[in-house]
Specification:
The chain is mainly beta. Helices cover about 5% and strands about 55% of the residues. The chain has a single domain, classed as Maltoporin, Chain A (Beta Barrel). The strands form nine sheets. The protein has a 23-stranded antiparallel beta sheet that branches. It has a five-stranded mixed beta sheet with strand order 6-12-13-10-11.
Length: about 750
């Protein structure tokens, strides 16, 4: 059985506007912002605007950075109506962002982490310099974004241990020196979706500026459940952020930022798109009239329990104090942060009208972190940045799996529940330094090193019991293979890791072109498997993952700055690659593959064809596969162990690319209009760790478009957005359904 998660299933027209007589939204701005919006080139072809990034923890031109970096501006994000990180990630070549119940699955160049809370991240997420270490911790932070930098490949020195695949470096908009603000309403009529965003920014005093953002999101969901008669998943979310920048003198700036968000989802988020003959037979034995409504927006009777028990409720919160102090020509930066979230989650895991398998999670995560950096002046023969990073992380997850077969044709299997408790504490300390030797006016050499000490402790408990009992029942003999009736308790689990990662880069910069070659060592700490239930201590502990990565690239500007181009070739080898494997019963467990590699090439180009028309093209060719994985997992029906050596990694399409175009012009009455189009293509890829072809996404193309109208004074903006105009159904997460060894079904979300 397959299920679909967050599918853009039908062509959608989204309206971002507010005009009389129209279903719409409004975006209004004060004149200080309006002048910039309404000004467009009118006579000559000009250069494409320079892009500034902080990929090396200091502001510099993108074309000067010897790293493969893709940048998406906040204006571009808003023009295409991309309101979540997964929407941005899933339209970027070589990148995949997939929301799941556990968290967002982030993959770059085929490298990422699976759905298990014991994983450290393979692709790090940083917002305004703060690390968000869990996939759920950054879900609400995607608003009022200035730009997003996607750093590809290991980033061992400046970003640390959990960026072995790359990093998302997100920068939000800062408070302004002049008063401005806007109100924005996003309306999606098809799914009764309303998103409201309000922003106020400006000076509070002579030395203090502030910016305050609030966003609410309400939707009836993208599918109808014929069994319950409700639209699902129904959401009612909101988030608020406040930022204060205090600058008492020219050499000192202190930033205070706080954010709180709440999400509330009711009903299921998944739908059956394929069902095995066994599942169909089972459902029809209970309800002969039941039908699976497949490949449509409607989920059939078999997708839900006969009562509405699914929900996802959580809170996210974070606070940051950043200090930038210029000491003469040197710069001292301090970033102190706290990030956390709470989650309550219920899920009908069997996806049938029967209440066979139900999950309930209670989860809490938080982390305190402190980073201190010291940077030398730029423009010297030798430049350097050095710093230290300290963090402490706490994670707690309580799970209940209820198995109830007593009232079904499977009554011989009985009823029981499984209770699992997991608590983990992690302390991290690291010191890093990066230096640049500008040997000549055009030739530079960069070297860096980061030493990391990582200590992890955990407690893990598991037991099985009868319904109505809170103690194990040794008499239960159902499912002997999984040890029903046995108790597994492990306390004072501990492990520590020391690692030194280095990077070396040569950079040649003649004129408007820049050539580079680099070698980097990546590192991701091992840990304790939160999902494993077999009671074998050695299977709970998994090893560190390491990478050796090589990259060569070129960046430049031609045709007087009207054409920019970037290209890179890469080759990375991963030892002890950490993978997510379904155990065939009720959990995704962590294992280590022997070796994997990721190689290929990528390019981006943007051309100002005229003063009105700009076109862009980006593409990635990727060959990511297991080099050696003799004892890998098997998809259903293929046995207990399979040799996956030579097979593709999940989320690694061989080809992916984006073609976009933007036309900007002015009517005779002074109104400015902009037309945007974006076509994304991906070849096929696996969405499950066992590489089940039944859970694979075929090649597809998706087209998005928008039309935007701005008043002469810039105070009003009206946009009409179209998404997935090619009307293509896609799925981005799949795995074997719980109890697949009995039911023989798989699912896709």
């Amino acid at each position: 059985m397959y299920l679909n998660l967050n599918p853009f299933r039908k062509s959608r027209i989204c309206i971002l506007a507010a005009t009389a007589g129209a279903m719409a939204a409004l975006c209004t701005a004060l004149p200080a912002q309006a002048e910039e919006i309404a000004t467009i080139p009118t006579t000559t072809i000009g250069p494409i605007e320079e892009v500034l990034v902080t990929a090396r923890k200091r502001e510099e031109r993108l074309d000067d950075v010897p790293i493969s970096v893709s940048v998406v501006s906040g204006d571009r994000i808003e023009a295409l109506g991309e309101v979540r990180l997964d929407q941005v990630g899933q339209s970027m070549p070589g990148v995949s962002v997939t929301p799941t119940p556990v968290g967002d699955l982030l993959f770059i160049r085929g490298i990422g982490s699976g759905e298990n809370q014991g994983f450290e991240m393979s692709v790090g997420t940083f917002i305004d310099g703060v690390y968000f270490g869990r996939g759920r911790s950054a879900r609400h932070a995607f608003m009022d974004v200035d730009h997003i930098e996607v750093l590809k490949g290991p980033q061992p020195v400046m970003f640390g241990k959990n960026t072995i695949g790359g990093a998302f470096n997100i920068t939000t908009r800062k408070p302004t020196d002049t008063a401005e603000g806007y109100l924005e309403e996003y309306v999606e009529p098809q799914f009764k979706t309303f998103q409201t965003t309000g922003v106020i920014s400006g000076p509070i005093s002579d030395t203090l500026n502030g910016r305050f953002v609030v966003r609410s999101y309400v939707t009836d969901g993208y599918m109808d459940n014929d069994f319950t008669g409700k639209s699902e998943p129904r959401r009612n979310d909101w988030v608020g952020r406040g930022t204060l920048v205090w600058a008492p003198r020219e050499d000192l700036e202190v930033t205070f930022k706080g954010e709180y968000g709440r999400n509330n989802m009711k009903g299921g988020f998944a739908q059956i798109t394929k069902a095995s003959p066994f599942l169909t037979t089972l459902v029809h034995s209970i309800d002969p009239d039941a039908e699976f409504v497949l490949n449509d927006q409607k989920s059939g009777p078999g997708t839900k329990a006969p009562f509405d028990t699914e929900f996802d409720k959580g809170n996210t919160y974070n606070g940051t104090v950043s200090i930038n102090w210029d000491i003469g020509e040197f710069a001292l930066t301090s970033v102190s942060s706290y990030v956390g979230y709470d989650l309550k989650y219920s899920f009908d895991s069997d996806f049938t009208p029967l209440n066979l398998v139900q999950q309930l999670w209670n989860q809490h995560w938080d982390t305190w972190a402190q980073e201190l950096r010291f940077a030398s002046p730029t423009g010297r023969t030798f430049e350097y940045t050095a710093g230290i990073y300290l963090s402490t992380e706490k994670f707690k997850n309580d799970k209940i799996f209820a198995f109830d077969f007593a009232q079904t044709p499977l009554s011989a299997f009985g009823s029981a529940y499984r209770v699992q408790n997991f608590m983990q504490n992690t302390q991290d300390a690291s010191a890093f330094a990066e230096g640049t030797w500008n040997a000549t006016g055009t030739l530079s050499f960069v070297g860096g090193v980061r030493y990391t000490y990582d200590k992890m402790t955990a407690d893990k408990g598991l037991y099985w019991a009868n319904f109505g009992s809170r103690t194990p029942n040794p008499a239960i003999t159902i499912f002997p293979a999984i040890g029903l009736g046995k108790v597994h308790n492990y306390t004072d689990l501990n492990r520590s890791t020391e690692n030194a990662s280095v990077e070396l880069t040569a950079q040649y910069h003649p004129g408007d072109m820049m050539y580079y070659a680099s070698y980097k060592q990546g590192f991701k700490a091992g840990g304790f498997d939160e999902g494993n239930s077999n009671g074998i201590l050695n299977d709970i502990i998994f090893d560190d993952e390491r990478a050796n990565s090589y990259e060569a690239g070129v960046k430049g500007r031609l045709l007087d700055g009207r054409l920019i181009g970037r290209a890179a070739m890469f080759y990375s080898v991963y030892d002890n690659l950490q993978v997510s494997i379904f155990d065939g019963v009720a959990a995704l467990v962590v294992g280590n593959a022997a070796e994997a590699s990721s190689k290929g090439f990528e390019f981006e180009q943007q051309l100002a064809v005229t003063d009105k028309l700009t076109v862009g093209l980006s593409a990635t060719y990727l060959d990511a596969h297991y080099v050696s994985y003799a004892n890998g997992p098997c998809s259903y029906g293929k046995g207990a162990s399979c040799d996956l050596s030579g097979d593709m990694l999940p989320y690694s399409p061989k080809w992916s690319g984006t073609l976009n175009a933007r036309w900007v012009d002015r009517f005779t009455n002074g109104w400015v209009y902009a037309l945007d189009a974006d076509l994304f293509y991906s070849s096929s890829f696996f969405t499950a760790g066992d590489l089940d072809p039944f859970v694979a996404q075929g090649s597809f193309a998706k087209l998005g478009a928008s039309a935007t109208l701005t008043s002469p004074d810039g105070a009003w903006t009206i946009s009409i957005l179209g998404k997935n105009l090619t009307d293509k159904t896609t799925s981005h997460f799949g795995d074997d359904i719980p109890l697949s060894n009995i039911l023989g079904n798989n699912y896709q979300q």
